[in-house]
Amino acid sequence: MATVLVVIGAGQIGQAIARRVGAGKHVVLADMRLDNAKAAAEVLGNAGYDVSTATVDASSREAVHALAETAAKLGEVNGLIHAAGVSPSQASPEAILKVDLYGTALVLAEFGDVIARGGSGVVIASQSGHRLPPLTVEQNKALATTPVEELLSLPFLQPDQVKDSLHAYQLAKRGNVLRVMAEAVRWGKRGARINAISPGIIITPLAKDELAGPRGEGYRRMIQLSAAGRAGTPDEVGSVGALLMGPDGGFITGSDILMDGGVTAAYWYGELAPR
Length: 275
Known about the structure:
The protein is an alpha/beta fold. The chain has one domain: NAD(P)-binding Rossmann-like Domain (Rossmann fold), CATH 3.40.50. Helices cover 47% and strands 16% of the residues. It has a seven-stranded parallel β-sheet with strand order 3-2-1-4-5-6-7, with helices on both faces. Helix 2 links the parallel strand 2 (26-31) and strand 3 (50-55). The radius of gyration is 18 Å and the shape is globular. The chain starts with a strand and ends in a 6-residue tail after the last helix.
């Protein structure tokens, strides 16, 4: 029986982690756009990986359920990399909450039903979630544990409360980390692990668009004033993903690793602090 690794979001970060943990497995590359999945599959296939493609809308229960079923029919679902999402420059607050918050909760729920014993997963969150001021204990618990279909009905996620895309994105990414923590309890009952990674500015085609867009000046300032003084690379995220998904990360579950070159540190306690 094949060992299956599912990658949702066929961008540079998803591919980088897949390269590190996908050898000897059947890699299912799923993306909203089939041409993205096929392009990534060609690169991985040419590098010796066994790859198939699928389309998935991560914010559709039917689509995510179908993908989980398809993966389970191919073999033992041993790994999940959830790297799909939309950025503040790409979408409205409503769309960001639907894709990044609801969609991630949906993926964790559906794949938590099929993940194999000994399996593991990573969710790509964001440094943005670490720049949101503290929420209440009740709000944290609501983001972590509210049933998936009720999540977007939470009072503090309504349009009169979340008026701009960046706020929506920060809430969604904070929610991802909290959801991973709660889901780790359920995944643990199946003998599986799930963690999050919160990357900072990682150079991908999307990041290049952001750097060239209306938020570009702010992004460049973040890079300049961070401890690292540079942006990150997808392969650096791949290394952390490999740790979390592999045997060396066997004692890590329900956790989040912030890897942003020190941007969050500078935001709270350094030169990036709001004045």
